[in-house]
Structure formats: C-alpha cells, structure tokens
Sequence to fold (398 residues):
Amino acid sequence: MNGVSNQELSKLVDEKVEQLFPKLVDIRRHLHMNPELSNMEFETTKFINHQLKEFRITQIPADVKTGTAAEITGGVGPTVALRADIDALPILEKSNLPFRSKVDGVSHMCGHDVHTTIALGAAVVLQELRESLPGNVRVIFQPAEETEGGATSIIAAGLLNGVKSIIGLHNSPDIPTGTMGVKAGFLMASVDDFTITIKGKGGHAAQPERTIDPIVIGTAVVTQLQTIVSRTVPAKESAVISIGAFQAGATNNVIPDKAILKGTVRTSNEEVRQQIYETFKKIVTNTVTGLGGEVEIDYQFLIPAVVNDEKITKIVRSAATAVVGEENTLLPEPTMGGEDFSHYQKVVPSCFVWLGSRNEEKGIIHGLHHPKFMVDEEAIKIGVKWMVQSAFMLLQED
Ligand code: NI
Fold:
C-alpha cells in the first residue's frame, strides 16, 4: 500500500483519530443541538459543507435538495463510498444533557448526528492519508433515512456512479461500546406499507341486514391476514404482517359505510416479499368481496431488505477486527427493522454494520427512537477507525 504496512496504518489512524476526537465531539454536539427532520436538513447540509471546506476536503456536486457528498482523491485506483444518514426524528428529547436538542419536538433519537460525525471524521483522516490511499473515497451524507426518498435521491443524483462498493454503519444501543456487529447475508427486513379501504353500506345498527358492515368485513380481513405468514411462508424465512390502524365509524348505533386498515409488511428477502404481496392481494380481495364489500388496496413497496454481500462483509469484518479485536467483532441476529441503505445494495456490492454504543455505567441503555436514547461518544472513535480501515482494505482488494 504505497509504502505503508497495515500495522503502520492502524497506528497512524489511531493517532489521527485521537487528535481529532475533541473536534468531532464538538461537531456531534452541534448537530445534536440542531436537529432537522427528513428532507428538511438545510442547515445540517450547510454545516457539513462548512466542515468539509474547513478541512479542505473537496465537496462534489450533488443534485439533491438536502444532503451532500465529498471525495478524497488518492492514487490511481477504484472508488469506494462511505455513507452516513443525517436526519432527525419528530421526538421530544427527554434528557438533561447540556447539548440536548434546541428544537422543540425534534431530536437525534436515532443517532444520525453520530453517523454524520463519523463520516466527517473518516473524511478528515482519509484526506490526511490520501498520499497512501490506493484510489478514491466518496463520502455520502444522505438525507431522509427515517422517512422516504433519501437513498433513492442520492442514487438518482448519480452519486453511486463509478463506485465499486459502499459501506455504512448504525449505532447500536444493544451492544456495548468497543464492539461491532458484522454479518453477511440478511441483516434487516424489507419494509412495505399498505392501506386497505373497505367500502360497505352504512345504516342503522339495529338493522344490519340492510347494510354491508365494513367493520365485520375488516375484522375478517385482519384475521385472514394472520394466515399469510403462518401458512404460506416457509418456516425458515422471516416475515411479519402487522395492522397498526383500524379506523371505522363514530358512534354506537350507526354502521358506517367504510373501514380503513393500515399496516406494514416486513420480510427477509425479495422472494418472500413478492410472494406475500401476491397472497395479500388475493386474500384481501376475496375476503372483502366474498362478504359483499368493495375494496381498494394501496400497497407501497418502500425499502428492500438489507442483505450484505459476502465478499465485502469479509473485508469490512477484517477492518472491524483490526479496530476492536476478534473477540469484540460480534455476529448479530437479523432484525425486522428497516434501513434504506438497502437501496444502495441493489446498485453496488455493500455491507452495513452495527457499531456498539451502549454504556450502562453512563446510563446509555435506551433503544433507538426512545425519548431518552443516547449514544456513547467513545463509539465515534471506533466508527471513524472502522470506516478509514475499511476504505483502505476495500481499495486494496484484487
Ligand atoms: Ni437510524
């Protein structure tokens, strides 16, 4: 690697990250105090661009409403990408931290402030080491991970063009600081949402025979939907169908003319995802029409499952063991939560990992999206080191 051994590189990276750490904490706390919701990250984008400029890192043109990207140009070689998400959540932070959110009802309760800081830190360190870098590293600051359109807007803007592989991380309050979770294959579920509108015929509750009761039809639909996972999906696969809303009627003695059901479908792969969709349509349509109602189904395919590439996972796992040691590189269980990083996985080989950020002594125990959620800032160092090491290793392969 242009004259730097792996051991020397580790040492150099460690030193640079230690030096940079106080600045990174300031950056993280600034972001934490000034959260912005998905697709509204205007000030966040400005702040990131300002930091890039301050560290003399080249910002590259990105045709996106919010979010930004940078590129570190090393020697002749391929380009790999690092991704961080930058948006916050509509949650009122319940903490007494001196740097708690200044925006009422908006906060970084998923730790994307930390992800942004890590990617900035990695950009700074890679910029300093660019003479030894056997290729280029693109750093992508993605908007709107929590809602919709973030990853797809980045892809549409061409920011993955020429990229050989992409990696990303998420903090995990489930595993301690000083550990990482790295797994090939299925890691996080696909997420699809649906709205079922059942049209019946309203009337007096005392004369149901003159009505077509959408509530009774709706309850049949809810029950039938439970059979999809239990009866049609192979037991070795993972899938969940949940109804989160059932809206119908307003009072005791009136049968309404309409019921609306809303829910979500999570699966572990594309095959199951497609199969559930087909079965879902059939069951809902037949149940509703069989009971005399009419139905409209709005089924939204949102994000694919996060399924990590074998080869990339092997490389970034080596980076993790170099940073936290073999014994602290854990094999996580898949979760049925979703992450739009999966959109990138449809375009280039990639891997998404968990960065341990739990610290019971510091009271950092609450889950993602909890109003008391926190991240152990020590994890920032590990995240930066992992990203830098991974970038080098990914550029060096083949
Ligand atoms: Ni998140």
The radius of gyration is 24 Å. The chain has two domains: 6-188+305-396, 190-303. The chain is about 35% helix and 25% strand. The pocket of nickel (II) ion is lined by residues 110, 112, 145, 170 (CB under 6 Å).
